[in-house]
Design brief:
By secondary structure, the protein is an alpha/beta fold. It folds into 3 domains: about 70 residues; about 80 residues, PH-domain like (Roll), CATH 2.30.29; about 190 residues, Rossmann fold (3-Layer(aba) Sandwich), CATH 3.40.50.300. The protein has 13 helices and 12 strands. The strands form 3 sheets. Strands 9-10-8-11-12 form a 5-stranded parallel sheet, sandwiched between helices. A 4-stranded antiparallel sheet has the order 1-2-3-4. Strands 5-6-7 form a 3-stranded antiparallel sheet. The radius of gyration is 27 Å and the shape is elongated. It starts with a strand and ends in a 12-residue tail after the last helix.
């Protein structure tokens, strides 16, 4: 592929300044036409005329200058492995997205963009429900979109993992349902268990992730030892869905790359399959990386008793956490097999074995994992 390096179209400066030009023009016209009337009937002052004209011109000038500076700060690039978007006047932010992590690239064109032949390309990644990067008001946007999609397709095709002969089972269920215990039992059956929760926590301590988190939320997010204060992070992301989506967009692609490597290892070692124990399997889009999804169910009273003993949570905390997740009934409907964990370990082991046999009789989902 041919690398791409471009900036927004120059005419985007005028397009983005247009609202200010209209408002400033109205103020200028107000001074020209209404100013003399006010000067004659209210009190005699040149500011009735000059004031609105000055404010209108200043408004237009400031906005155009700002858009020029913003245009100059923006740079969009596409290489064989990454897509980047740089922007910022007072603070420069560069977002780099590995092509293998691109989940969607779409062309968004406002009415004014269609009139002026411009377009904006929006990029989302696996695990993120929000736009992670955007190429704003570029020319030949359709052509650029095709180039991005082709580059993504090429790298994913080149890195496709041979999944023949190995199952990838995702675990879903409510907090306290016993997913970790089911994962342990599957481990006894020879499956390689991937603890995505631990992987996500480990990702927070990576220098690149740590640096980005400090950029977002300041050094107050750190513990005295320099590591991330996970309690403060939890407070931020559970209160603000946008911040949660931003963190997931940073961490989930890292977790996915590690997961792909483990799947390749499991195949090389002759394991029967891999178990993805992820607390937010559906929310992160990780179900799309699995051949099957096994839902672990348990009565709410049982789950609440378990989390009181293991995590010290009360019912209010359980509600707070589950309210920002996909509803349990929806998760259950999107799963392939449901097992109930409301008895002893021996009973659960039998149910897990039965559940695995039922999964083997089902057709696989379309999995889309790629090598890192």
């Amino acid at each position: 592929m041919n690398p791409i390096s471009l900036k927004p179209a120059r005419r985007s400066i005028l397009v983005r300044s247009l609202p200010a030009i209209v408002k400033g023009g109205l103020l200028f016209a107000l001074g020209v036409y209404a100013g003399p009337i006010a000067r004659a009937n209210v009190f005699d002052s040149a500011w009735w005329i000059d004031g609105p004209k000055f404010v209108g011109v200043a408004w237009i000038g400031f906005r155009v200058l700002w858009e020029v500076l913003l245009w100059n700060s923006r740079l969009y690039t596409l290489s064989e492995t990454h897509l980047t978007a740089r922007s910022g006047v007072l603070r420069r932010i560069t977002t780099s997205v590995p092509l293998e992590n691109v989940q969607q690239a779409v062309l968004d064109r406002l009415f004014i963009e269609r009139l002026t032949g411009l377009g904006t390309i929006c990029i989302t990644t696996a695990g993120s429900q929000t736009i992670i990067a955007a190429w704003v008001m570029i020319s030949r946007a359709g052509e650029r979109l095709v180039a991005i999609l082709k580059a993504v397709e090429e790298i994913k095709a080149a890195n496709a993992v041979d999944r023949a002969g190995i199952q990838v089972i995702g675990l879903a269920g409510g907090v306290g349902s016993g997913k970790s215990e089911v994962a342990r039992l599957l481990g006894e059956m020879g499956y390689l268990v991937i603890d995505s929760d631990q992987d996500a926590k480990a990702a927070l301590d990576r220098p690149d992730v740590l640096g980005q988190i400090v950029t977002w939320w300041g050094k107050e997010i750190l513990l005295p030892n320099g590591k991330v204060n996970r309690r403060k992070v939890a407070d931020i992301v559970f209160k603000d869905p946008a911040e949660r989506a931003r963190l997931e967009g940073l961490v989930h692609p890292i977790v996915k790359r590690d997961r792909v490597a483990l799947i390749a290892r499991a195949k090389a070692e002759g394991k029967p399959g891999v178990v993805v124990d992820a607390p937010l399997l559906f929310e992160a889009g990780s179900d799309k990386d699995c051949d099957y999804v096994l839902f672990v169910d348990a009565p709410r009273k049982v789950r609440l008793a378990r989390i009181r003993d293991t995590r010290g949570w009360d019912e209010a905390e359980l509600n707070r956490r589950e309210n920002v997740q996909v509803p349990l009934e929806a998760k259950k409907k999107r799963s392939d097999v449901v097992i109930v964990n409301d008895s002893d370990t021996a009973t659960l082991r039998s149910r897990v074995q039965e559940g695995v046999e039922r999964l083997r009789a089902l057709p696989r989902r379309r999995a889309n994992l790629s090598k890192p």
